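sry for the spam today, last one i promise. struct tokens for design, 405 residues
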């Protein structure tokens, strides 16, 4: 392998999801492969290099673009695919692929909105195309989670995939949202579609989150902080997808293509980044509201359920029963969900030593925290810290400088 391997990162840097993946590749290059020279083009029309003249050593690509898939399919250099697993990627091929865990994203979205106390839920997806199967996967998992909790779920995709026909898109969306029962919690398949929902709510005069709570996916800070109100969103760990893809590519370049042939890596989401658009509690059961407030106030610690029951003047079994009737899961399960999310935020968004984090979370050692996190997420604190960047680094690495080898 030459001293300065040339790597083409063939993704659309104009898309939030692809941009975050590029950031994960850039992080790997800084930390593990500083000699790499990256081809990363922000202009979607120029994202594919002239492969007849380009003599690189590796490629990381999203197969959503047929032109990209066709151009790289016959190359002999190591290639790693990334994305939702649709488009023009052949799942039977030997090309390794790093997937988004769309089912986990759908379940996570339902859990968050159920935790807000919504009896009625909705999902706004993307119209069916060759590349949009990820939206269908999220919708199916979201609806199944709602059904398991005994809740109604309304699913809608619409006819328009983007804003080029804005008036038609909004008219159709307003019609659907206007027909939904209120209050309701809604998950959109990504942040862009969630922004469309917020615009429709503004047109209809609906209060967000009181009439309709809105949750997106991608945690694109530009969209999430500029919407009114700020948008809650699922961080689907796109940076880790990029990091894992770069790890596989590096292994293939060092050990040969067979070192990762046919390998499939599924990356779970980090969790919900909660903002104003879902900051609501849609239940009239004040005891349940109080219990949730106590859990959310100290998410890192095990809850004192008898003390909470005493505070709301109920027996513990009665409180447990009413809590599960509203949220679809027990106080313990909700506490674990909140605790995992809080631990992951501290690991990925701060430089606190793992020993300090484990102490704050009520563990006697890092080993116990590691066992707990692995049981509930399938990963370890050390692994999380390696592959995730802090929020400030995200903005800096989200649009890496264009380099042409």
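last one done:
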């Amino acid at each position: 392998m030459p001293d300065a391997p040339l790597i083409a990162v063939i993704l659309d840097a104009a898309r939030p999801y692809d941009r975050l993946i590029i950031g994960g590749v850039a992080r790997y290059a800084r930390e593990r492969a500083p000699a790499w020279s990256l081809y990363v083009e922000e202009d979607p029309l120029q994202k594919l290099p002239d492969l007849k003249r380009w003599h690189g050593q590796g490629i990381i690509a999203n197969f959503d673009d047929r032109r990209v898939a066709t151009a790289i399919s016959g190359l002999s250099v190591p290639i790693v695919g990334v994305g939702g697993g649709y488009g023009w990627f052949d799942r039977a091929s030997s090309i390794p692929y790093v997937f988004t865990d769309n089912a986990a994203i759908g379940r996570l979205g339902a859990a968050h909105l159920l935790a807000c106390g919504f009896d009625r839920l909705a999902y706004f997806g993307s119209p069916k195309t060759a590349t949009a199967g990820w939206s269908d996967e999220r919708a199916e998992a979201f609806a199944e989670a709602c059904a398991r909790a005994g809740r109604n779920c309304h699913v809608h995709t619409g006819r328009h995939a983007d804003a080029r026909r804005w008036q038609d898109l909004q008219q159709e969306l307003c019609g659907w949202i206007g027909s939904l029962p209120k209050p309701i919690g809604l998950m959109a398949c990504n942040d862009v579609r969630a922004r469309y929902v917020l615009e429709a709510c503004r047109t209809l005069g609906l209060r967000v989150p009181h009439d309709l709570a809105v949750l997106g996916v991608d945690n694109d800070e530009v969209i999430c902080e500029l919407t009114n109100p700020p948008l809650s969103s699922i961080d689907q760990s796109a940076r880790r997808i990029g990091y894992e893809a770069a790890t596989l590519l590096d292994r293939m370049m060092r050990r040969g293509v067979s070192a990762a042939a046919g390998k499939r890596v599924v990356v779970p989401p980090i969790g919900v980044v909660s903002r104003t658009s879902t900051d609501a509690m849609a239940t009239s059961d004040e005891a349940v509201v109080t219990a949730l407030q106590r859990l959310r106030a100290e998410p890192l610690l095990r809850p004192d359920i008898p003390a909470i029951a005493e505070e709301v003047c109920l027996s513990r079994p009665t409180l447990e029963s009413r809590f599960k009737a509203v949220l679809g899961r027990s106080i313990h399960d909700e506490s674990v969900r909140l605790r995992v999310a809080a631990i992951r935020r501290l690991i990925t968004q701060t430089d606190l030593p793992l020993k300090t984090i484990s102490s704050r979370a009520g563990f006697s050692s890092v080993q116990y925290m590691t066992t707990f996190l692995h049981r509930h997420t399938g990963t370890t604190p050390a692994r999380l810290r390696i592959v995730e960047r802090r929020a400030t680094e995200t903005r800096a690495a989200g649009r890496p400088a264009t380099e042409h080898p």
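The longest strand covers residues 212-217. ok im logging off now
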